[in-house]
């Protein structure tokens, strides 16, 4: 478990408590987030999830900006309730006033997209090529049918596959 990240979560809470002069319930912290998101705040569960891969690749900015970003969501929820905008003025107030950071909605970390297999389906149109995901291809194997919107013909698997 990344101790620096846990320590930064606690430090963010201490800053918020000093600023607002009240205690805040500490969240459960999880590192089971993958994909493009750096962090996610689950408001009603008081839980934070962080992407360990992006943390390892962007440690300094992640600790400074991403952790504060997610903690600010939970603090805003505890202060103002569920009916505020996720990146609205209340959240922005916390980012600027408490953490003295720009209220950036999204990170700019380089995210490696995983390669996926596409199954090529065709219809009778001249440019009628449809790359299906493995999940959609499996649905066809179970009897599901997909149609071309232009020529209305059932799409058929061409036998071709490619990695994207």
TrEMBL record:
Domain SprT-like, residue spans: 7-158
Entry keyword set: Hydrolase, Metalloprotease, Protease
InterPro entries per UniProt: SprT-like_domain
Extent of the signal sequence: none
Keyword RNA-binding: no
GO molecular function: metallopeptidase activity
Entry superkingdom: Bacteria
Pfam families registered for this protein in UniProt: SprT-like
Keyword Protease set for record: yes
NCBIfam families: PRK04860.1 (NF003421)
Protein name in the entry: SprT family zinc-dependent metalloprotease
């Amino acid at each position: 478990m990344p101790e620096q990240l846990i320590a930064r979560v606690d430090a963010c809470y201490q800053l918020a408590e000093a600023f607002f002069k009240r205690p805040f319930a500490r969240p459960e912290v999880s590192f089971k987030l993958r994909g493009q998101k750096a962090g996610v705040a689950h408001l009603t569960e008081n839980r934070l999830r962080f992407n360990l891969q992006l943390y390892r690749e962007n440690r300094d900015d992640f600790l400074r900006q991403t952790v504060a970003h997610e903690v600010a969501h939970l603090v805003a929820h505890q202060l103002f309730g569920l009916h505020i905008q996720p990146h609205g003025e209340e959240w922005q107030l916390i980012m600027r006033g408490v953490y003295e950071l720009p209220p950036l909605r999204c990170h700019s970390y380089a995210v490696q997209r995983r390669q996926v297999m596409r199954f090529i389906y065709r219809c009778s149109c001249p440019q009628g090529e449809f790359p299906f995901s493995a999940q959609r291809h499996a649905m066809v194997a179970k009897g599901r049918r997909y149609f071309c919107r232009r020529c209305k013909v059932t799409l058929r698997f061409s036998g071709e596959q490619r990695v994207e």
